[in-house]
Specification:
The strands form 3 sheets. Strands 3, 4, 5, 6, 9, 10 and 11 form a 7-stranded mixed beta sheet that branches. Strands 1-2 form a two-stranded antiparallel sheet. It has a two-stranded parallel sheet with strand order 7-8. It is built from 13 helices and 11 strands. Among the domains are: about 1-90, Winged helix-like DNA-binding domain superfamily/Winged helix DNA-binding domain (Arc Repressor Mutant, subunit A, Orthogonal Bundle); about 165-270, Periplasmic binding protein-like II (D-Maltodextrin-Binding Protein, domain 2). The chain has helices spanning about 10-25, 25-35, 35-50, 65-90, 105-110, 115-120, 135-140, 175-180, 180-185, 210-215, 230-240, 255-260, 285-295, and strands at about 55-60, 60-65, 95-100, 125-130, 145-150, 160-170, 195-200, 225-230, 245-250, 260-265, 270-280. Residues about 305-325 have low confidence and may be disordered. Helix 10 links the parallel strand 7 and strand 8. It is globular, with a radius of gyration of 22 Å.
Length: about 325
Amino acid sequence: MSEPRFRVPSTSALVAFEATARLGGVIRASEELLTSQSAVSRHIRNLETRIGEKLFRRQGRGVVLTPSGQDYYVAVKAALENLHAASKGLGVQTPSVTIACTKEVANFLLRPSIPQVKRAMDDNADVRVLTCDYDMLRFLAPTGIDVLFEYAAAPSEPAAVKVLDEEIVPVASPTLVRRFERAFGRHPRHWADIPRLEAIQNGETWATWTTWFSAHDCDPPKAPTETLDDYQELLDAAANGLGMAIGWNGFVSAYLESGRLVRLRDNWLRTHIGLYAVPTQASSGNRNAARCLSTLAALGEVLPGARQLSPQRQPNRGDGAFLERI
């Protein structure tokens, strides 16, 4: 008997692996796939045994890809997307658009705007959003991605459109504001001992606490600091009173509108960084990708930032009172 031409893992195992890698944990993958955590873990164990490589390592309460896992993720993501597109697109001539971005961009910025994006496209066109760690986006570019998001002082492609300027402001829960109200009313150099939450910084270019405090002519004062690798988890921790956080204009809006978080200063700090939507070579000739880019370029125009402060214009004291009195 002849050997089968293709020896590949089951699609269930590949789907479980892709979801775990994209979402950063077995629990979230099982919730998305409507299956048990043990089933997802079993698929991943079987996959690692079959391949002979560890695909994940634990980090905090979740998992991250190993170097071998990152390489495999790129291949699996492309294969699943190609299968999905082939199955869904048989007989359909309207070009769809695939967007790659971080989970934060997808959850806070893109998904609320998808109806607006789709209205600008052909009736039968679809929008697919793939999420991954920021440093993996460029690896996905050759796999059929039409648009990817990047943070940069200047875009990597001339045809890129700026979605928004990076603007930040410290935010905290009403409970934490009441607890440290006297300190918050003073210059930020006096914010010692106020717990801070910050995101893991892996060489990315976006703003940090040092960026904000430097704009106020001081170093970050000593304080308990907790580092989290998921921005939504970070905002939820801030809303629960565990510390103050950096709020990004366009990403923290829902928390501010609901009152779960309040701004600690009136003014947003604009940095030199922008968030860009970048067309890839795969988008060439795709009229819906061009319409998608035009729509994305208009998103930042409706953000509510009061953009009076920049890193070059440093305040002399507290730079404004609370936007909302508690």
